[in-house]
Amino acid sequence: MAFIHLSGAGDFNHVRLLGIAFRAVAETVVPSSEAAQLEIAIIEACNNIVEHAYSQQTGIITMDIQTTSEKLIVHLRDTGSPVPSGLQISASPRDFDISGLDDLPEGGFGLFLMDTIIDERRYWSENGINTLTLTKKLQNSSL
Amino acid sequence: MQLFDPQSVETVMSKFSIEQKNNGSTEVFYLKGFLDAHTAPELESAIAGAIAAGQHRLVVNFNDLEYISSAGLGVFMVFIEEVRATGGDIKLTAMKQKVYTVFDLLGFPMLFDITEKEEEALAKFSA
To answer: Which residues in chain A have Cβ-Cβ distances shorter than 8 Å to B77?
Structure first.
């Protein structure tokens, strides 16, 4: 089991750096191609924090990465505005049909990407701290 | 194993830029860096400007784009209906695997014409 703690300013430049750092850690437990996909999910989650939680204020994003023989778990925390009840939870990976041009959304793909890549996503807000936990089941861990 | 690639950090900090080339009938956009919610408005403005100038045959070259987030991808959704309604299109080309993965995960290859090389994208407009 391994545990890594990272933190960075809640802005887009630091999100990119957090993504690079996360991917380096992820590549120790999953193939590079899978780590790249997980990085996409992590960056989308962090982007949401910057765009929404920290839209009216500045703050820090903390990222705790935990690996076991079975799972890679990422806890993302911020102290910004919490996501309104139901909004973060309701998006399903198949909520929209992209096979046609009618009524195509111009946004909202971030949750779709996360749910496509990650096995489990949980979000809650407590005592001023918002926590998003993303869990990926591992096939063959090297740790 | 090198955990932190200095070149990657340098690329991250180079942010985003767009170069445009017009060959008369087609506008080609060359993207570089990171395209996300922070930089997407720059691309949106560039494409809107080309359309306003009467260009509806657009090619977007991703060769130097390191990353695209869902917000960046949404830019193309803003314009695709409009340009196709006037007989044009937005063709996407020269994506790195990491960028293509984002499009692919969302099923966008069904919706957009994506080619390996810019010449192929341009040729599709000539066909």
So the answer is: 104-106
